[in-house]
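Design a sequence for this backbone.
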């Protein structure tokens, strides 16, 4: 489409992941054309999109006075946040992933409370079991999408770090006054900032090996 986004000179019309799709355009008219293209493509391939699960996000401009988009003649509402492939993206504010950090820190906090709620039934969590529970139930939330949501703002990272430190202190029996370094030297766990950075760099190492035709390589 003439109004496709361009990445290093290559047009980017849309993104696909399994049955999730994100249509991209630099203009309102271009995005509406994309909806029409999608209708035709789905009909040819004996498929149908679900307008009830669709939303439109606008970055860098206001959409308050614009008419809604249509898919199968059903109006598609605007939204300021949407989850795509497990990552919550927002169009307001300077950080696209602020809500993602908030949601994942809350999910990790809930998992933490659930783990320690067992104390009344099975007794205190010993360090070895605590480490296993952390890696299985807490760490996946704290590292979710860290290869995409790079830690460019310390306040967002700190929100996740507090959950990690709180959990380790609890199962190690260490108070708030204890040195933070002890949480990692005594458990063999990585400080979250380094763990997230390592996973992101590993992903970058993979990306640079891709052919130049891949969009990730162009990025």
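Sequence:
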């Amino acid at each position: 489409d003439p109004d496709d986004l361009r990445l290093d000179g290559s047009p980017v019309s849309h993104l696909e992941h399994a049955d999730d799709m994100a249509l991209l355009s630099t203009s309102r008219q271009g995005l509406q054309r994309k909806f029409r293209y999608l209708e035709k493509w789905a009909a040819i391939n004996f498929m149908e999109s679900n307008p009830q699960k669709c939303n439109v996000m606008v970055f860098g401009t206001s959409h308050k006075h614009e008419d809604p988009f249509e898919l199968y003649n059903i109006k598609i509402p605007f939204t300021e946040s949407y989850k795509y492939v497990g990552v919550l993206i927002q169009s307001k504010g300077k950080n696209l992933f602020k809500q993602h950090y908030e949601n994942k820190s809350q999910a990790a906090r809930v998992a933490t409370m659930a783990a320690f709620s067992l104390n009344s039934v099975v007794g205190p969590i010993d360090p070895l079991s605590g480490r296993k529970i952390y890696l299985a139930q807490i760490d996946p939330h704290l590292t979710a999408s860290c290869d995409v949501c790079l830690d460019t703002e310390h306040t967002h990272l700190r929100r996740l770090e507090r959950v990690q430190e709180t959990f380790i202190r609890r199962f190690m029996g260490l108070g708030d006054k204890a040195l933070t370094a002890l949480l990692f030297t005594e458990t063999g766990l990585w400080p979250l900032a380094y763990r997230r950075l390592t996973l992101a760099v590993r992903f970058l190492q993979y990306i640079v090996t891709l052919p130049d035709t891949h969009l990730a390589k162009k990025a």
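The mean pLDDT is 90.
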